[in-house]
């Protein structure tokens, strides 16, 4: 952890860089997916990765907690640091506890609402009152009052929006420092999506959040910073590069590149 930062409970206080990407290039086999991406992601902010399909947003996100290690043909060059530590030197299991991930589609365990949170706590050796922790994190995602009388119910019976909030609560219960979200609202109705947006805005008080979204209105609502990836073609290959990185206000009101300007005005309106 950056020495300038102090942790009080689960609240990360102080300014600093949570994630540093330095000249990151990713190949799947001989095919490049992204090239030469360099950016700093700041603590207690929401950073949105946006850009057209195929620009490498998910590839880049999955590099942060080494999920691309699961693809045997992946080659990564450059450096990725989490609170100053090279992710390649952190045990993957420990890294994924510190850098939690919420996926595009809700994926609750096919067990009770209670066990979806309690199981991870037990596996990670939590010795306190598990029921208190279950309530704490269900409350944090705004779900407890909706399910407090149904905690033994199978989580698969919840609505899509409720399932996604449960998955976020399950991730938060492991007390990560960073939360990665890969289009968490893509399969949700507008009301559920707004609830997730409001939740993400609250979560940055406690965590650093990185989210992929194709919804530019969502990015404009919740993001403090926007990383725009664009697709380029060179020597017969097609891959993503960082086209622009700016505060959300600057990106949406005065983009510095023509590619970003065209993307915004094609996708909003």
Question: Could you describe the 3D structure shown?
Answer:
It is a single chain. This protein has 269 residues and is α/β, with parallel strands linked by helices. It has a domain at 6-104 and 176-250: P-loop containing nucleotide triphosphate hydrolases (Rossmann fold), CATH 3.40.50. Helix content is 34%, strand content 30%. The chain has 10 helices and 12 strands. It has helices spanning 57-64, 92-98, 113-123, 130-140, 144-147, 160-172, 190-203, 216-222, 248-253, 258-267, and strands at residues 6-8, 11-13, 17-28, 31-42, 46-50, 74-82, 85-86, 99-102, 178-182, 208-212, 225-234, 237-247. Strands 8-9-10-5-11-12 form a 6-stranded mixed sheet, sandwiched between helices. Strand 6 (74-82) and strand 7 form a beta hairpin. Helix 4 crosses helix 6. The longest helix has 14 residues, at 190-203. Mean pLDDT is 90; it is low at 1-14.
Question: What's the arrangement of secondary structure elements?
Answer:
Layout: E1 6-8, E2 11-13, E3 17-28, E4 31-42, E5 46-50, H1 57-64, E6 74-82, E7 85-86, H2 92-98, E8 99-102, H3 113-123, H4 130-140, H5 144-147, H6 160-172, E9 178-182, H7 190-203, E10 208-212, H8 216-222, E11 225-234, E12 237-247, H9 248-253, H10 258-267
Parallel strand pairs: 5-10, 5-11, 8-9, 9-10
Antiparallel strand pairs: 1-2, 3-4, 3-6, 6-7, 11-12
């Amino acid at each position: 952890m950056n020495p300038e930062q102090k942790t009080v409970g689960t609240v990360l206080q102080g300014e600093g860089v949570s994630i540093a990407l330095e000249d990151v290039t990713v190949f799947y086999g001989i095919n490049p997916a992204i090239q030469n991406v360099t950016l700093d992601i700041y603590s207690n902010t929401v950073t949105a990765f946006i850009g057209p399909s195929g620009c490498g947003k998910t590839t880049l996100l999955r590099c942060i907690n080494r999920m691309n290690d699961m693809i045997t043909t992946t080659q990564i060059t450059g450096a990725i640091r989490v609170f100053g530590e090279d992710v390649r030197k952190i045990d993957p299991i420990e890294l994924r506890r510190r850098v939690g991930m919420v996926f595009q589609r809700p994926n609750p365990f096919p067990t009770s609402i209670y066990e979806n949170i309690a199981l991870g706590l037990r596996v990670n050796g939590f010795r306190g009152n598990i029921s208190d922790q279950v309530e704490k994190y269900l409350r944090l995602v705004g779900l407890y009052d909706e399910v407090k009388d149904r905690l033994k119910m199978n989580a698969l019976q919840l609505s899509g929006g409720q399932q996604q909030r449960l998955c976020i609560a399950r991730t938060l219960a492991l007390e990560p420092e960073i939360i990665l979200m890969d289009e968490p609202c893509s399969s949700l109705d507008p009301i559920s999506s707004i609830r997730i947006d409001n939740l993400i805005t609250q979560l940055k008080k406690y965590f650093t959040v990185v989210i992929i979204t194709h919804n530019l209105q969502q990015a404009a609502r919740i993001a403090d910073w926007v990383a725009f990836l664009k697709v380029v073609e060179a020597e017969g290959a097609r891959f993503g590069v960082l086209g622009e990185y700016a505060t959300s206000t600057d990106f949406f009101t005065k983009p510095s590149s023509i590619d970003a300007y065209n993307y915004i005005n094609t996708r909003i309106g």
